[in-house]
Amino acid sequence: MRLLIVEDEKRLALSLAKGLTAEGYAVDVVHDGVDGLHRATEGPYDLVILDIMLPGMNGYRVCSTLRAAGNDVPILMLTAKDGEYDEAEGLDTGADDYLTKPFSYVVLVARVKALLRRRAAAPSPVHRIGELRIDTAARRVVREGEAGSTEVALTAKEFAVLEQLVLRAGQVVSKAEILEHVWDFAYEGDPNIVEVYVSTLRRKLGAPLIKTVRGAGYRLEAPR
Fold this sequence. Notes:
Elements: E1 2-6, H1 10-22, E2 26-30, H2 33-42, E3 47-51, H3 59-68, E4 75-79, H4 84-92, E5 97-100, H5 105-119, E6 126-129, E7 132-135, E8 140-145, E9 148-152, H6 156-166, E10 172-173, H7 175-182, H8 193-205, E11 210-213, E12 217-220
């Protein structure tokens, strides 16, 4: 999933981005409200972490502008302010949750995951592909066989690539789409990195699971 951090404290923003990237998310960072509004409007984000005290345009205005335009992306507001009035104003402008600085990184990650689960609450997070049970909420893959169940160990990035294929099982997912959602917006490395991760997933999950559609991308399908 792809997250946007709008935070003018650069050290904090980069620290959050580093931690969330390690959790398996693709993360973009901007440092003022105008850029944040533009990026949130133009980009397909799953969640926005939005500071209130921003140069250019404060977080309240960014949030209210997004909501007025019909953008329902989950928004977690951050602020150094405290008090019920500030929290109420943030929620009144359309924010989904509110976190006061200083905060625990563990709590922030928990809030992020809760908002993402809430957004995806309609479809079941558990997908069954052949003998595999893939839980996108718990980020676990279990192989079920006659001898019992065995968990398949995947890194955060491996699971993120698999998740893109699982959510569109039976459809072709292009390399560019996987790069866009799993790696961040500014990624300038070798696009063949996707092939490396697909190869690893085939080795761990079974080669027939992920089909290459020449010139188009990859398709996840249950082995016959």
